[in-house]
Amino acid sequence: MQNQHKSWLNLPSLSIPVKALFTGYLLVVGLGLLMAGAQIMLTHGMADGKFGLSVDDIVYSYYGNREGSKLESKLNGSMKDKATPEENFTMIKWARNGASENEWNSTIQPIVQQKCAMCHGHIPGLPNVTKYDEMKEIAKVDEGASIASLTRVSHIHLFGIAFIFFFIGLIFSMSVGFKKWAKALLIFIPFAFLIVDIAAWWLTKMNPSFAYFVIVGGFGYSLASTIMIFTSLYQMWVMPWRGAHSDVNTWREG
């Protein structure tokens, strides 16, 4: 009786409602991972002023560009198209010259009010650059992500993404045709690379040489998650139609 109970607890033999539940989750999570990748490309991927994620982008995001200010990095990167080249140059020059309050009142603040305030003065989470004190901080030498922001983002990622990997792994654990050690390894890989990714943020903050590990970590858990998602979808919907359900015993793990 125990073997008979186990025989149907696999992806090809699940009931249609359960398959629908799992499929909906996997599709939404897969789309979410794609959107996360796009968001990284539009934020970190523009840190060096060029589209596409590179080691320099990682270094600028976490270690900073110690040769210039965060304001300069943004105006040459993701915020480059928000103002005219002349206005960007004016703000960069102001930052390099010490970000004086007199020039802020006469020249910089009008540009900020016209080109930046629509987002940075109203959207929670974005620095309110309409205030001189906050703009002055951004105009200082760019030392990358602050300890406070790293702590906040790290705990959000560790808690939130771990839940995503847990349910992807739970669904994939019902897959067939894998050796137990191979299945266990695939399930564990995203968690391991997530730790590598988050740890590399902090290490890169101290030493830019660790930036490579950020890319390795993100690529590792993305690849493992993709394999599990597509394998699970294939075994739920394609495999039964290929006649695999005719012999349930062949689906048992090796």
Question: Care to describe what's here?
Answer:
- This protein folds into two domains: 2-44 and 145-251, no CATH class; 68-138, no CATH class.
- The two termini are 21 Å apart.
- Mean pLDDT is 87; it is low at 1-6.
- Helix 5 (85-96) runs antiparallel to helix 6.
- It has eleven helices and no strands.
- Helix content is 65%, strand content 0%.
- With 254 residues, the chain is an all-alpha fold.
Features:
254 residues; mainly alpha; 2 domains; 65% helix
Structural class: mainly alpha
Query: How many individual β-strands?
Result: 0
Q: Determine the number of helices (DSSP H or I, runs of at least 4 residues).
A: 11
What is the typical, i.e. mean, pLDDT?
87
Any idea what the radius of gyration is? Answer: 24 Å
> How do the helices and strands follow one another from N- to C-terminus?
HHHHHHHHHHH
Question: How many domain regions?
Answer: 2
Name the poorly predicted regions.
1-6
GO molecular function: translation elongation factor activity
Protein name: Elongation factor-1 alpha
Organism: Thiomicrorhabdus marina
Keywords: Elongation factor, Membrane, Protein biosynthesis, Transmembrane, Transmembrane helix
In short:
With 254 residues, the protein is mainly α.
List the helices and strands and how they pair.
Layout: H1 2-7, H2 16-42, H3 55-62, H4 70-75, H5 85-96, H6 101-115, H7 117-120, H8 132-138, H9 147-172, H10 180-206, H11 211-238
Protein name: Elongation factor-1 alpha
Keywords: Elongation factor, Membrane, Protein biosynthesis, Transmembrane, Transmembrane helix
GO molecular function: translation elongation factor activity
